[in-house]
Known about the structure:
- The complex is a heterodimer.
- Chain A has helices at 83-97, 111-120, 150-163, 181-190, 229-242, 257-266, 276-279, 283-297, 303-306, and strands spanning 12-14, 17-19, 23-25, 48-49, 66-69, 72-75, 102-106, 127-133, 170-174, 195-198, 202-205, 207-208, 213-214, 220-224, 248-250, 270-273.
- By secondary structure, chain A is an alpha/beta fold.
- In chain A, the strands form four sheets. Chain A has an eight-stranded parallel sheet with strand order 3-16-15-10-9-8-7-4.
- In chain A, helix 3 (150-163) runs parallel beside helix 4 (181-190) and helix 4 (181-190) packs across helix 5.
- The radius of gyration of chain A is 18 Å and the shape is globular.
- Chain B is 17% helix and 31% strand.
- The A-B interface holds A 28-31, 34-39, 51, 54, 56-66, 68, 70-73, 75, 77-78, 80-81, 83, 140, 217, 225-226, 275-282 and B 15-18, 55, 62-66, 103, 105, 230-231, 233-234, 236-244, 254-255, 260, 275-278, 282-290.
Amino acid sequence: MTAxxxxxxxxxxxxxxxxxxxxxxxxxxxAFGRELEPFVDLAAIGAxxxxxxxxxPRSGRPTPRMAETPSGMLNSIGLQGPGIDGLxxxxxxxxxxxxxxxxxxxxxxxxxxxxxxxxxxxxxxxxLGLEVNISCPNVESRGEVFACDPVAASDVIAAVRQAAxxxxxxxxxxxxxxxxxxxxxxxxxxxxxDGLSMINTLLGLVIDPDTMRPVLGGVTGGLSxxxxxxxxxxxxxxxxxxxxxxxxxxxGGIRSGxxxxxxxxxxxxxxxxxTAVFNDPSAVARVHEELAAALAQRGFASLCxxxxxxxx
Amino acid sequence: xxxxxTVPAPRAAHPPVQRVVAVxxxxxxxxxxxxxxxxxxxxxxxxxxxxxxxxVGGTLSAALLxxxxxxxxxxxxxxxxxxxxxxxxxxxLAGLREGDTVDVVGPLGRPFPLPEPGTPSLLVGxxxxxxxxxxxxxxxxxxxxxxxAIAGAASADRLCSVEELxxxxxxxxxxxxxxxxxxxxxxxxxAADRIGAAGVxxxxxxxxxxxxxxxxxxxxxxxSYVAVEESMACGIGVCMTCVLPIVGEDGRTRFxxxxxxxxxxxxxxxxxxxxxxxxxxxxxxxxxGVVAP
Lengths: 312, 293
């Protein structure tokens, strides 16, 4: 750490909840945080955004589940996870014991699933809030991607907001695979979302030229990594411009402090580092330091001053 | 399937570290490149069977995923790996020169469990997989085990670590598919001849070979441990891409990560025939809509 970056006030908030750092893990890219313990101080980062949890344990999809692409990767995990019982029994207590904040990503196939998950997480120690994954592309049918339809998306968010702990901010995770992301953002905000997580992966495909068949067992997969960063940044920009009062957790290809700075300038008040963790397990802590230094170099006394600066 | 005779490999004693390290030495070995890395913190923690994960292409690289490679040797502050160049990432690694630096995470994964001292052991390596068995052979010999090693490959230029194994094992057999070195044929033939004398079997190599050796051992009631070479995006357990159907201690099958729950699995715990599929009895398959027939 340089003397420069300690001068910047890096505190921010998710909804009404204060966090010491604006840099978080990204859902699906750091499991439940435990594996990062050798590489980052989990209590010092903004929060651990968990892999999406559902009501029941899920095996996920058969392999192959991954294909490397230029500056990114395609994944087709299919939301493998322990289910809410496993999360409550093991992963969340583990994080709470270490003073780490958990921003729990929840997923389901029906509105009631989301509401039940939100209710199960009420008052759980260490849980900071909820990220509602209404945009995972690796589900059985595109009709289940709630975030592709403003009405379906707001039904989920309204149910979650009603069932959730009032102290838990509820963030809706949006898909970039829509014609007008602002209309979805507006719909979920009207339905009670306290903030927006943007963006989930883009639906993609890779074909193996040798086998002449799709590489992934699930055929299509979610594209992530720096390749999608301009798309993510554009989404954050558009939504912040239309809804400047709505907090945004920005994500999509952030690898460095300067990448994170772009999201902050576009309107994000916090960021998630996802695929970059596969490349650099200490990326979340590194991006925090680099962002602090970048803000200091540009004369910002606090992160909050820089949020949305590019619009002004 | 009868009850497994192996117990799952326990976790390593020490957590991994991430370091930017210098290449201390490089030499071509047949079709491969052996890199020696000045990585004392990894070397002192490493156990046979574990691996390291490299970032490739430098800081401007568009190839983000780590390349996981078995540790071939660790000692005196140096970690050795054998790189098989086949894609752009491994080709970049193989092109590193003495003095170059590379970002590496390790040691990762679960080591080979060691048997009771003195247990006669059969080690089988396929291609560059043989490199992962050298450190194990040393440990086994040091604890009084008689070690028989079989190294096989498609052709002579694909053999690996044969001299290193000869230096430590009591008996080394070489096979090649084309007969260009050693016996013509697969490792499974000499393995079948020698397995009767073994109290434990270890293998590292391609999936088909691991399956053959694992099944051979299990059929004889001999415990076997195989180190898999699944492709991994991260190597540390967060990406969930490297899963295999593995029978757990409770007898139930789960999609288990090759990086953190492997790469060493009981040879009778890997459901080789089901790799790449989602069997109905995998924990959580019901939530994916896969039901019992």
